[in-house]
Amino acid sequence: MSTTTAATRTRDARSLLTAEEFAGVAATVKRANPGMETTLAERITVEALAFVATAANRSSGRLAPSPVVDEGWHALILHTRVYADLCTRLGGRFVHHIPQPPNPTHPHVPGILAFTQAAITGAGFQVDEELWQPGPKASAECQHVPNCGDTECEANCESGPN
Predict the structure, then answer these.
(1) Which pLDDT score is estimated for 3?
(2) How many CA atoms lie within 13 A of 81 on its CB side?
């Protein structure tokens, strides 16, 4: 008789890409952040993959990456074929990115990062909590809040829920 534990239920976000695809995305994160260690770029890429996988399969509730995780999402999107194939394989919505500059007049959505981390955990991924904390670990400066409709998710670089 087997016992199911949290460890056996944890999904591996890194396995969502081939080794070559993963290395390419992590290299893009590193190039955008001169001086960044390869291991940090890889951690950011893993977290971005978990975020996208979770967002692509959510039917309700807004999710947003931290600025650090957003850096990984930006890198992933730059690999357009990899990103499109990933969204197709996930079987969920295509998570669109609609960039907007940061707007200090829009307040931060309270609790959105904690809610997003809980959703990622609920989707079976382990959260790298350090990458969800404030601090200058990467160059991304915006906050995304996906607005999920019937067939697509859109994410805007904004603080408000609109």
Answers:
(1) 42
(2) 3
